[in-house]
Amino acid sequence: MSSTLHSAPKPLLQGQDWSGAMGEKWNHWHQRFEAMLAPIGAATLELAACRNGERVLDIGCGAGATTLALARQVGPSGQVLGVDISSALVQTAAARAEQNGIINAGFLCGDASILKLPHTGYDLLFSRFGVMFFNDPLAAFRNMRLMLGEGGRVAFCCWGPPPENPWVSSLAAVVSRHMALPVPDPLAPGPFAFADQIRTRTILEQAGFTRIQFTPWHGKQILGGPGLDLDEVLQFAEKAFFVGDVLEGKPEQLCQQVLADVREFLRSRQTKHGVELDAMAWLVSAGCAGKSSA
Ligand SMILES: C[S@@+](CC[C@H](N)C(=O)[O-])C[C@H]1O[C@@H](n2cnc3c(N)ncnc32)[C@H](O)[C@@H]1O
Q1: Does residue 131's CB lie within 6 angstroms of at least one atom of ligand 1?
Q2: Distance between CA 123 and CA 151 in Å, rounded?
Q3: Is 23 in the pocket of ligand 1 (CB under 6 A)?
Q4: Angle formed by the axes of helices 197-206 and 137-145, nearest 10°
Q5: pLDDT at position 13, please?
Q6: What is the mean pLDDT of residues 268-281?
Q7: Which residues contact 290 (CB under 8 A, 6 or more apart)?
Q8: Taking the CA of residue 157 as centre, how many other CA atoms within 13 Å lie in the half-sphere pointing to its CB?
Q9: Alpha-carbon distance 147 to 125, whole Å?
Q10: What pLDDT, on the 0 to 100 scale, is given for residue 16?
Q11: From the CA of 292, how far away is ligand 1's center (Å)?
Q12: Rounded to an integer, what distance in angstroms lies between the CA atom of residue 210 and that of residue 189?
């Protein structure tokens, strides 16, 4: 099917407005996104190795799942501050902390790349997939570096290269049988902005971090999380993931054809756990000059 008659699709997973529509979308579907990210989040928390009494920042905390986990790890004498640019997500995260009786977690709505905190000296800057969306990542990491104190360290995860992440790339390939998708800019803010280990290392070094380590994580992404049936996964792919975005404004017949093809692809990857696709992420740790790393 030719795409020449139709408007060009938006860049895939780039140029998203996390302070607005994208934040609200993530908020609506946060339980499913969190279920997908839980295994990599657990590996990142392990890497962070929080200790009792530590003060931790959770950057791009989303709906707060990792903030609450960190708060439990640092115990009552520790503190965690979740920072996110989406007010919808910050509200959800704060409500969850309250519902769970967690009093050592706070939340702040703001852009972590420019935010000035009244109190700094944090022990750990943590993030589960929340640091790849900065327009100027070097300026952002320089700013976040100022939030850390003596002995401060960093632990975050970010996606590896698209070809190693078929949970996105193979789904995109199915859609692109029907319409030309724009070639993503590998440097643009988006999930794969830190895929290039050399570029990310350079950003961290220039921002003043040392002892930078990248550990590859290989595993599965279960689309929409475990336990969904095929219709639920298709609904997730369309409404929460990017499939619906690229179909926006397209003729009904084309949309139906794409969705039928996507459904068939998802069916071919269905296991007893759900629709499972390979994924690769980097687990990144670093310290600050003259300070110890994670
Ligand atoms: C992929 S989501 C991950 C959310 C959460 N860490 C999780 O794992 O569930 C990325 C998060 O980064 C946040 N974000 C994007 N740009 C940001 C910025 N400049 N400052 C703070 N948060 C930002 C988004 O609002 C979103 O919550």
Answers
A1: no
A2: 7
A3: yes
A4: 50
A5: 76
A6: 97
A7: none
A8: 25
A9: 8
A10: 85
A11: 26
A12: 23
Rounded CA separation 216/160 (Å): 8
Spatial distance between the Cα atoms of 64 and 68, rounded to a whole number of angstroms: 6
- State yes or no: pLDDT of 3 exceeds 80: no
- What does the alpha-carbon distance between residue 223 and residue 35 come to, in Å, rounded to a whole number? 9
Residue 244 corresponds to which amino acid? G
Indicate the DSSP class of residue 182: P
* One-letter identity of residue 193: A
Q: Which residues share a beta bridge with 56?
A: 80, 124
Dihedral (C-alpha) 109, 115, 121, 126: value to the nearest 10 degrees? 60
CATH fold of the domain at 21-162+187-223+275-288: Rossmann fold (3.40.50)
Contact 41, 128 (CB under 8 A): yes
* 240 CB near ligand 1 (under 6 Å): no
Structure tokens at 211: 């002892």
Which residue has a Cα nearest atom 10 of ligand 1? Answer: 130
105: how many CB neighbours lie within 10 A of its CB? 27
Output the six-digit token pair for 261: 């093809």
In the numeric block, the tokens 């390979």 are attached to 278
Cα dihedral value 30, 74, 159, 116, nearest 10: 90
Residue nearest (by alpha carbon) to ligand 1 atom 4? 62
Place of tokens 């070097």: 138
Among 155, 294, 132, 160, smallest CA distance to 219 is for 160
d(CA 153, CA 286): 6
Residue 185 DSSP class: -
Q: What is the mean pLDDT of residues 286-293?
A: 69
In this structure, the strands spanning 148-159 and 122-128 are: parallel
